[in-house]
Amino acid sequence: MDLWGKPISDNIKNEIIELLKNAKEKPILAIIRVGEEPDQLTYERSAIKKLSGFGIDVRTFVYQKNISAYDFEEEFKKINSNIHIRGILILRPLPSQLSIDILSKMIDPKKDLDGISPFNMEKIMIEDDDGLATCTAQATLEILKGYNINIASKHAVIVNNSLVVGKSLAMLLLKEDATVTICHTKTDNLKELCKLADILVVATGNARLFDDNYIKDGAVVIDIGINFDKEGKLCGDCNYELMCHKASFITPVPGGVGAVTTAVLGKHLTKNLL
Q1: Quick one: which of 49, 86, 103, 207 has the fewest CB in 10 Å?
Q2: For 96-115, what is each residue's pLDDT tens digit?
Q3: Using CA atoms, how far apart are residues 248 and 74, in angstroms rounded to an integer?
Q4: Separation between Cα atoms, residue 3 and residue 250, nearest integer Å
Q5: Among residues of the chain, what percentage have pLDDT more than 70?
Q6: CB 238 within 8 A of CB 208
């Protein structure tokens, strides 16, 4: 069964519209992009279209890929201190001269919609509901819960060890009483570990790397990958055509996690209005 993101996104949209009815002002989201990476442009266009439909004002701040660290941080300070901007999303990865670690410490935690600040990371680690998880991790949880997929007591294998996806999602799944294994592309015996998963989550940035040899019968597969194949077609980390017959549930790309990630972004923004 396909885990389409649209029904979950629509539910979140309805929640946001209800919340905005009592808002004193139309919230403004700032999306910061450095360069012209195709996957970032795809996400940006999707976010603008979707969140504008939710009643959220989205403004983009675009910089050249070779901008210096000093100049970028000065620009970021202006956005961060703007009282009219209620939320900030920094598209990643950033060019090598820019540090997401520095920006995560600079960002106002109340505007940190993607949960990258030490404040929000700590909140998620200690299971404090006041914290905001990263949008991708939260979107994965929203899909599992939205389709009533049992998480408690299940073995979840996450092939991604980043703060933004793997580590953040692990904390959310542990809170739901799952057993979690975090792997990455250099993990020994990766295929064997993936085949142990009741819930397999992949986010490696490798187009169609995973096929039906990586899952057991009936596994739930969450594909977070956003890639372009040799023909320029958007695809995930999974070979969907091979895996869909073996998985009990699987997210398509496009139309799966990405559709919910942008909705979660709006949910986080409106949460800050309360």
Answers
A1: 49
A2: 999 999 999 999 999 999 88
A3: 49
A4: 6
A5: 99
A6: yes
